[in-house]
Structures
1.
Amino acid sequence: MGLNLAQKIIRDHLAEGELRPGREIALRIDQTLTHDAMGTMTLLQFEAMDIPRVKTRLSLCYVDHSMMQAGFQNADDHMFLQTMAARYGLLFSRPGNGICHQVHLERFSEPGETLLGSDSHTPTCGAVGMLAIGAGGLDVAVAMAGGPYYLKMPSVVQVILKGKLLPWVASKDLILDLLRRLGVKGGLGRIFEFAGEGVETLTVPQRATVCNMGTELGATTSLFPSDQMVHSFLRAQGREGAWKPLSADPDAGYDESIELDLSSLEPLMACPSSPDEVVPVREVEGIAVDQVCVGSCTNSSYIDLMTVAAILKGKRVHPAVSFTVTPGSRQVLQMISEAGALTDLIAAGARILECSCGPCNGTGQAPATGAVSVRSFNRNFPGRSGTTPDQVYLCSPQVAAAIAVTGRVTDPRRLGDAPRTELPELFAADDGMILRPPENSEQVEIRRGPNIKPLPRSTAPAESLRAPVLLKTGDNVSTDDIIPAGAKLGPLRSNVPASAEYVFERIDSSFPTRAKEAGAGIVVGGWNYGQGSSREHAALVPAYLGVKAVLAKSFARIHQSNLINVCILPLTFADEADYDRIEQGDLLEMVGARDRVAAGSDLVIVNVTKGIEIPVRHALTPRQVEVYRAGGMLNYFRGKAPA
């Protein structure tokens, strides 16, 4: 039996392990990316490893998240990142150059290579046949230092696409349909590999939307073949030399297969407040809308914005709607300007935002109290918009544009003939806002603002675990719930003590005070704990407050790794019914926890308060057990760093 595409790339980058689902493997990493929301901590961690220069073939740091410079903190972080990049050998994408995933797809993606990014939407570059994976910042720092990236070998799901998208139906509807079928935890431990005759009908930007939102399935990554469509895209970017054909063998095997007929899809929409609450647009038509936002790393490409401009040409945005458009990169902004589409958007009444993440991570454009906001983004978790509570719907740019005109949820098929937009033969390639490190980088002075605090250091775990339950949560707690994103906390990402004041703010604002008083604690969660962003602060900051373990029904992949990396023990219930036998405030104990974790995966926690025993498990690999016993990844890696 032949190899599928994912297996081929993994085989070519395999440093340890074997291609058996569920077994830990180690991958050599070609490229890394980080950005200003995660990058300060990532580069502080890299600096602590005492490695003189990055060892990957290519590493980049983007500024795209924390753009609201209401005080000195964000500007200081940006200067720190720029000087750190120059000192240690990273390329630096300046503020205004664009969203990391859009720019990386345009200028640096390569079929067959591996990319590790400290952002959960790094799989966007799977659109060109690149194995692109999101991870915590510390894992990215390790990769920059020359270490491999460890993960459990995912199963590979073949998604066979048939037919062709109908007018007014977008690739966003394809990924929304998969979310409707599988849910936000349906991709855990899986890679989604797209195949079939329908693949060749999708452009690279359309594929990028699918790969980007595969993250919302909980997938490790998503992947398309590198075919003639990819060749045309890279040639138009002036990077034809980066292309090579890459696809699964004709007799490749898969762990699962899903069939999807593109011609059967219709415009879809995710309702508040989860990406998998998906319904046909026609079923929710008529809801009055106050705000429409087009952009984000999911839908801010040239073809997305040209389509929106064509729908709005000669029309006016409804007077009750605030309509924003965010180009994903300076390349996109320049090209829609030259094509006249920017003028059409402005004439229609659109508000043009700078090339950044912006409203997607709650940095600006928070909706009004009680307002309905429709967005072409990837997430609508509660409060992520910056307003609590909020009512955020997700849809394609086509649906968003139709709503901007009508002021109500509208099936775009009511607007008549769909506009036709084509990819250009040549993109406006200009890398002038990407700074390369100087040759004499060791002489670069690193500039640290007063808000950039020293990196917290973890210590080896105590012999036994004994602590109260500080918080009990429900299912699908996101990293936004643990440590929020947005304009308020963005400036504090380089300051763990300051960030600690906001841990679990949306669930229980008393948590930081109670955690400090307790000195140590445990958090109990439901299914899919830690979904969403790769934000390692959601592990790092609770660890700073003394959280020693999280006991949940299940964990999101990246967050579970982040917990281990900071020496928080992730445990799951052997019997999920035992979740109901623990209450907030109960005292839990596991005698000899450190040694028992090393001895096996089946453990017992004693609920001292209730006088009962609760069987629990851990999924740590032998290597992760060593990481935990060392007091976290930084301590572990410093003892094993490659020469």
2.
Amino acid sequence: PPPPPPPVGNRSKPTGLVLALIAAFVLFSACRGGSNSEEIIEIIDGANEPPATPTVTITGVGNYSGPLTVTYLEKPAQASTETKSISGTMASGGVVTLPSQPPKGSLIVSITAGSNTSYVGRLIGSSTVSLKLNLTAPSGNLELRPADGGGKIPIGTYSEFQLIRTGTETLNGIYKQEAGLDLMGNAGLSVPNWEPVGTDTAPFTGNFDGDGKQIERLYINDNTRDYVGLFGYSGGAATFTGVHIASGSVTGKNSVGGLLGQSSNSNAVTTSDCSNGADISGTGFVGGVVGFISSINNFNLYACYNTGSVTGNGENVGGVVGVSISDLTACYNSGDVTNNGSHTGGVVGYLASSYSGAPANIIACYNSGNIKNTSSETGGVVGRLYSLYSLGGYQTVTACYNLGKVEGAAKVGGVVGCVGERGSFGSYGVIACYNSGIITGNSDTTHSILSVGGNSFTSTACYWKDGACTVNNTKGWPNATVDAFKFTTAYFTPSTGDSAEWGTGDGSESGKYWKAGTTNGSMLPKLWYEK
């Protein structure tokens, strides 16, 4: 049980921050036969001022004794690297006396017990920071805490997050981020580079709920390594929900993304409501959110977006995803995308049908970032559409648009860079899309909507702004007879008879992708989820 409260007469009046280190309770590990005690050490920011010399009371019978040090950054908003610390000595089963408290707004960098340091990355505000420590000699080792009432293991520190990647059982766990995290990368705080969770030989197969909390200063810098991101490689029925990377820098070689480097090529993976604001760079298969979606028609990417810059030096680079062979829905990119290789897109670099023959579609997505590629097959939304096999079905780009400048060499399009297939396999459609961004290229395979079309290609009710394409402004497609229209101002009203996909709604049914009231000539149409 927790220690009793101090007598009423010894309590101070509420003055703001209260930071106390307490042992909340003791857990015994069944697999160890209960021989080793474990403590939950909590940093509590509450409503009452602590005693002049706050204490940590150890209620278990663990035999750890030695120093316990809390290191903190007092003014993180000022980009300072000068850390401070408060230390005490823990006797076995005894008490730690701390001489001071970190002030409100401090960033707790780490807690060290014995020879082991647990990185924290939490601002002291109105939250509780909890760590599970094994107090068996010779040192205090961090361990994951038990699951909450919903069956999710709480993740509230840098080191707890890193524990996920340590074994098969943890890689298959169910987790929930309990607070905003600062991973403290490249900040001069002597914190190690982030190690991606999951590899191609030991993928993450669990469930991670970011709960809408932010992750700041994610930092990875290894241009010789594949499968790089917050998570490196996923498989099984892994899910990612509400994970939001606010800042940082991620550099790898191939399969690089802010959230995830690559998914498995055979199993279902679901990603929804996730975002990236870190700068992402690699050689090929590079995306702001995911580098390579290789799941066979089982990966669902929904309502994800990227605001960071994306830089590649090879094939398959996109603002949200580098390569996908599964659907993308309601995703957008506002970051600049730069590449020196083929297949570069504002949302996805390469969108292909799966090896099983199922089509991969992109629905209700947009790009507002600038796209610059020194090579071919560059598009404002999709760099290349491609059908791998004869069962490729009907791949579509539906209700998508581009506002950004798109610059490439050959095969440059305002919405799609290039459509192609293996032999005569596959068929394609671009439906209810528009482009108002400036499109530049150095050959006549540059057009306002699509640069090069395949043999089995159709289009319906697409628009481009007059003057958008510097090479071929008289037509939006290589085939002038297809269904596409030029508009002369920044305002246009698609005809209600053009296509069902110009209908307004909330995106819950096919064709209802646009905001009500945006097709009345007062503005360019926006998708239902946009502000």
3.
Amino acid sequence: MNDANPVRDAMPTAEAIARRVLDGFHAWRETFDAYTRGARARFEAAAWAEGQQASIERIESYGRTVTAVVEALRAEGAPDLARWREARACYPELCRTLPDRELAETFFNSIYCRLWDHRDIVEPNLFVRAAIPARLDAGPDPLLRNYPVNDGDWGACVGRVLDDYAFATPWQHRDRDAALMLQAIAEAAPEVLGGKTAGRLQLMEPVFYRNKGAYLVGRLLVGERAVPLTVAVLHDEAGHVYVDNVLVTEDALSILFSFTRSYFMVEAPEPARLVNYLSELLPGKKRFELYNAIGFYRHGKTEFYRDLLAHLDDSDDAFVLAPGIRGMVMAVFTLPSYQTVFKIIKDRFPPQKETTRERVMQSYTLVKMHDRVGRMADTQEFSNLLLPRDRFDPSLLEELLEVAARNVEIQGDLVLIRHCYTERLMTPLNLFLEEASEEEIRQVLDEYGNAIRQLAAANIFPGDMLLKNFGVTRHGRVVFYDYDEICYLTDVNFRHIPEPRTPEEEMAAEPWYSVGPHDVFPEEFPHFMFANPRIKRLFTEIHGEIFDPEFWIGLQQRIRKGRIMDVFPYRRRQRFASRFGSHGEPETDAAEAR
């Protein structure tokens, strides 16, 4: 009897499949690293537009490489599931010596999901759990530079830092910046001045690049104290670089690495080592957030899923509807003990929502690719997510099956969610205002206006600017999180409301003037943004120019001229130029946070 199987015999061997996937991973890593390495030259040349394009292309490179590997596997004879499982079994050994093998496992998962359409996300098919812990060599940490101070001369220490991290672009005023850095350090640790205090500055070897900034990230170690320390370096219009700020608190560093910001360009041959160090500086952040922040958002998704599974094992609360007003496009639920919301596109939208499922998904892709300027929440997209049925509140499950039946299915003891987005849980702004003190109301309304300004500076018009579509983070920052009406600012036609020509026009219930599909009338904003007259009055006092069409038209003109406006991860008043009067008066953009 002949046991030969011509179909299986025509397939590549398990090892050949595993090597094909690994070759694809190496190809992607090479592309990713090339974009990342170019960040330094782009910063030194003030090539801001090229930097934005490189960020987009680096994100897109992952999907392109996955497509190429999948097409190659299919052309060679697509494996059946049994052969694929054999490839999965031998893959870890091929990755054992890689310094970034956790990323290689995630890449394998991505190929599987593309081949089998995200079905059967279980251990024999892919790496639900890490097969081998990330590799970290023993001995001196190559990630870190240490600057010991034994004689109390912290000024000389700071000067060495500026010399060691010098750019091809010269310092605007090295000695001044060193003095300002020392002053900021002394504010965080007064004992470093006026004595012989010993200690050290410890900084990561790689520089973190994002938008118009370069950041030296590390900590100040004095006695038993460890103070997070980040040096923010900017580029002036005269072709020099200068220290704009030194961040010396965990909160400030957390905002710098926020889920609301674009991914850093930072060289990380051993991503786990870098993430481990960042975890020491930011113990409040989860590992998946840090992988996201340094550009490995696909592995961040893997880490998120593993973290969620572990959390479900260690908790017993139920998934419930997320707090706030129910949306017309998304069904949103959360697990109270886990700071994440799950967003599912509804089957049908009300007539006033002139959009489609495809348009909503395009909007979420836009946000992933675009500069989020600290004002839009990053998301992760999941397909065929399985969650235990007994963890769902019955009323939530009933709601999901009613409004999103195409996306939600009960399969025995599990709930299958065919497609969803995950996002950090925040307090809806409208709910925050109901409980806030007078001082908190003023502060958060200022933040709300700053969020709108900075989104506009990034060429983003939120569309629906209702309070319920913005959230408040634990740091008190206001963030936009409802993307179904988002568009580019330059696609909008901002208009003044025409004066009525007759008493009949003035009294008419409907507009007496024509309104195009892209027309927006900022003078109408107060009427739908605020139901509470006191809140409306206070916001108008702080940010009233947002209701003036000329504010928006002016921003459009600057964007169309190619101006990339400054939106930094700290307030203008915290910059050295504002605090110490250095560098002259800082330039101000209309959209800059105050």
